[in-house]
Amino acid sequence: MGYPVQFRVTGEHIEKVRALARKVATKVRENPYVTNVHLDWEEPSKVVYLNVDQERARALGVSTADLSKFLQSSLIGSSVSQYREDNELIEILLRGTVHERTELTLLPSLAVPTENGQSVALSQIATLEYGFEEGVIWHRNRLPSVTVRADIYGKEQPASLVQQIFPTLDPIRAELPDGYLLEVGGTVEDSTRGQKSVNAGVPLFIVVVLTLLMLQLRSFSRTAMVFLTAPLGLIGVTLFLLVFRQPFGFVAMLGTIALSGMIMRNSVILVDQIEQDIEAGLTPWQAIIEATVRRFRPIVLTALAAVLAMIPLSRSLFFGPMAVAIMGGLIVATALTLLFLPALYAAWFRVKKT
Fold it and tell me: Would you say 332 and 236 are in contact if contact means Cβ atoms under 8 Å apart?
């Protein structure tokens, strides 16, 4: 999953992007709940440039291709054969000694073979220059991108830390040149992207739920009444997430959506039982009371089974918010369904005590 706190700087010029990223890293370090703040690619790497004197090399009988093969064989190694040990093939490499490969000062004195069978020192046909180059360059949308990454110190959540840090980056965002971006990355970005995909499907979800309720209840008023019980779980979700200090992220939102289905299922069971009792000859007032008493145990036991099943998941770092949301919402919503829904039914259909 990578580092929990990430801010990404993207732009055209590498040095400018890195300078902006260092400013962002300085701001991130000011937060007391983050640690190990760094860039995903830091300073340039040291390199050795080999400038070959082509005329001198040709005069001594050394071609560029032969020189390249020789250096690869001496420093990296070239495969000459394979050794079989039982069912495993082990590659045999031909290369220089460890001392020759690790001592940079010995590089100019490497003996390069020539076409006539003799050898010349590398320094006779090429000059060595020491410099720097980028070891790795990350690109995003074809532009260089540097990510400021950090770990979390303590029990804070990535989303809450990003919300704390992001406003402090306003001065840097105000100074960004045209074509440069400062964005949130990492798990927070993935969660936001997932929430947008879920939000896009919410209208279809509502239509499907209302259609199924209409097929089951065959009444606009009863369908609306059952649908209104779905938000009751938000009370428990909010309470438990605050008590257990869990973020309302993508997985918690999925748990809340699943919770609304559980609540409406219990409501359908209770409303359907009331209708059956009325058809059996009971008065509406008696049917409400009898149905609530009769369905009390099944509804409570199924809700309790679901809550107990969520306890192991509540200790998970990823699924913990979803489990806490379902547990809290189901406990509170079950109690409110058994108390609120009968009263709502009586008020909705103006049932009088008889």
Answer: yes
Are the beta carbons of 340 and 229 closer than 8 angstroms?
yes
Cα torsion angle, 336, 195, 323, 317, sign? negative
Q: State the pLDDT at residue 42.
A: 74
Mean pLDDT of 97-108: 81
Looking at the structure, tell me whether residues 56 and 34 fall in a common domain: no
Residues 6+ apart with CB under 8 A from 28: 5, 7, 34, 37, 148, 150, 165
Task: Determine the Cα–Cα distance for residues 125 and 52; give it in Å rounded to an integer.
Answer: 6
Looking up residue 180, the CATH number of its domain turns out to be: 3.30.70.1440
159: phi then psi, degrees, rounded to nearest 5: -65, -40
| Mean pLDDT within 112-138 | 84
Residues 233 and 298 both lie in one domain = yes
CATH number at residue 274: 1.20.1640.10
Rounded to the nearest 10 degrees, how much is the dihedral formed by the CA atoms of 329, 330, 335, 336?
A: 50
Q: pLDDT tens-digit profile of 142-154?
A: 898 999 999 988 7
Lowest mean pLDDT across 147-151, 232-236, 316-320: 316-320
pLDDT confidence of residue 320: 87
Percent of the chain whose pLDDT exceeds 70: 99
* Domain region containing 291: 219-349
Q: What are phi and psi of 303, to 5 degrees?
A: -65, -40
CATH number for 99: 3.30.2090.10
